Amino acid sequence: MVFFKKDDVQRIMIKKIDQGDDFFRLSKNSIVTLKRSIDNFGLLDPPILLRRDDRYVIVFGHNRIKVLVELDYEYIDSLVLDCIPDRLFLEYILLKSLRGEIGPIGRIKAINILKNYFGLNNEILSTVSKYLNIPDELIRRDELYENIVNLPVILQDYLDIKEIGYKAIKNIFYIPSEGISLLIDWIIVTNMRINIFKNIVDYIIDIYKRDGNLNSLRDIDVSTIQDRREKENHLFDRIFRVRYPEYSGLRERAEGIVKRFKGMGVQISYPKYFEGETIKLTFNISNREDIESIMDRFKKIDMKAIAELRELL
């Protein structure tokens, strides 16, 4: 560990800290838990600042300082440095990663800073990448880094907080700008789950490749739905239908079969969107029903209809 002298910790006026400089920002943009902690116990870990003339740049502690500003603090005890040891930066990002404080976007930025600001060689970067679970190609391909950090901030924050994998992040680059805007709008109103997000990204790409545009997605409206989860389900269903237009016809066939069996006291459930391998039949029997009538109902089950439903999977 890098150790510091007591004099390195100084009381700094917050208004002298450049809060708009996000060059070193790595942590997820989420302060709810942190704000509660600081409000109850105060600041437990001082931020690290880089001195630049009579101003200060935040190296570590962007979220902490944001919380202190919201809590109307005027001063903050900070570790003030005139230069940043690469070992210090490396130790802190590894610690933050272990704590789950930085997501995939933050880890990508960390590797870029180690490479281009501190000038660490590829051998060290490759070792660090393994600890951060980052593909080596991010070290070799600067354009991939540029694509990622140029994504809209709202999308970056979502990717970080949800811990979206790098394969899914790379897939986003196949989406045109209109699709990115739609994706952001949908994230804001649904805060969609990870698997839903990954599937929607794939569907947008497929629709764009097929149609050459995303006109079929523009009129999707979830504003009248109050429940967030229902919004998400409706959104996914609409996009799925556009991606697989034959699905609507298949579902009508399936629901017709289900309705027919329901009249016989048999409930049928099948995987949503036909993505599965199992059909479930529930045969309801009343204790007032005699064995002969039960057997007669069994005999009347249309196995051809069951086979037809199974073929839809």
Would you kindly provide a written description of the structure presented here, covering whatever features stand out?
This protein is an alpha/beta fold and 313 residues long. 53% of the residues lie in helices and 11% in strands. Strands 1-5-3-4-2 form a 5-stranded mixed β-sheet. Helix 4 packs antiparallel against helix 5 and helix 4 packs across helix 7. The mean pLDDT is 87.
Task: Provide the descriptors you would attach to this structure in a database record.
7 strands, 53% helix, single chain, elongated, 11% strand, alpha/beta, two-stranded antiparallel ribbon, 5-stranded mixed sheet, 15 helices, 313 residues
Summarize the structure.
With 313 residues, the protein is of the alpha/beta class. The chain is 53% helix and 11% strand. The strands form two sheets. Strands 1-5-3-4-2 form a five-stranded mixed β-sheet. A two-stranded antiparallel sheet has the order 6-7.
